Amino acid sequence: MQAIKKIALAACLLTAGLAHSSDYPRPTGFVNDFAGIIDTGTRLQLTNIIGQFEQRTGDEIAVATVKSLGGEPIENYAVGLYKQWGIGKKGKDNGVLILVAPAEREMRIEVGYGLEPLINDALAGRIVRDTMIPHFRSGDFPLGILNGTIEVITIISKKSGVEFDPISAGAIVQQDMYHVGEAAGAKESFIFKLLKVIFIIFIVILFIKNPWAALFILSSVGGGRGGSFRGGFGSGFSGFGGGLSGGGGSSGRW
After folding, report:
1. How many domains does the chain have?
2. Tell me, what's the pLDDT at 19?
3. Is residue 82 assigned to a domain?
4. Domain for residue 189, yes or no?
């Protein structure tokens, strides 16, 4: 079985290597919505969760949506994109790529060598099949991607013995709407609540115009306990660490 897997990976790498590097988009952060299917609020939540998870564990999660696979099988595209971005730390290969191609109605979870013992093909397939694709079928891409990312992080955390709760780290998963930040308590004064709303609107607008400035402000404001943003928004994105994929993971269609 391992021999077959290695041969399949070699074939994917060879095929992916035939494409020029310019065929793959350059990463803009932990969340790369090239297909334009993730709303701003969910993108902020994902960035917060993944950033804090990377700070805590060193593991790197990349979310990517693409306009087109360019005629490639999604397995080949995922391996090529993973290799070019270098998701995960060099030598540890502790990364995961969550790739969604809405035009082709396909997705894949690609797992780095170092995390294969934690996220095997069966687990990746369950997340794709049971957590993400049902939301994609109903047209709710943001919720499917958010919940899938949370499940990947939760599994890795539990199996590696790390206490990390993505919900308390800043994600509030709801069926109908997404919130950035959370109420500090029912006894807050009206003025304080109003200031919070104004601040959130300001951050959302700033994030659209200048994401890095918004993330810098959020990381500064949320650094301490008891702030408006529980846990803060982690550190800014400075590129991935040069990891490699082991060819493990799972694909799905809807």
Report:
1. 1
2. 45
3. yes
4. no
Residues 18, 174: Cα–Cα separation, whole Å: 42
pLDDT of 170 reads 56
Enumerate helices (H) and strands (E) in the chain, giving the number of each: 8, 5
The list of the chain residues with pLDDT below 50 reads 3-4, 6-22, 171-187, 222-235
Measured distance CA(234)–CA(29) in Å, rounded: 12
Give the residue numbers spanning the domain of 77.
2-169+242-253
Q: Please, how many CA atoms are within 13 Å of residue 131, restricted to the half-sphere of its CB?
A: 21
Half-sphere exposure (Cβ direction) of 183: Cα atoms closer than 13 Å: 8
CATH number of domain containing 152: 3.10.310.50
Predicted local confidence at residue 202, as pLDDT: 82
The predicted pLDDT at position 219 comes to 64
74 within domain boundaries: yes
What is the C-alpha to C-alpha distance for residues 109 and 122, in angstroms, rounded to an integer?
11
**Does residue 225 sit within a domain?**
no
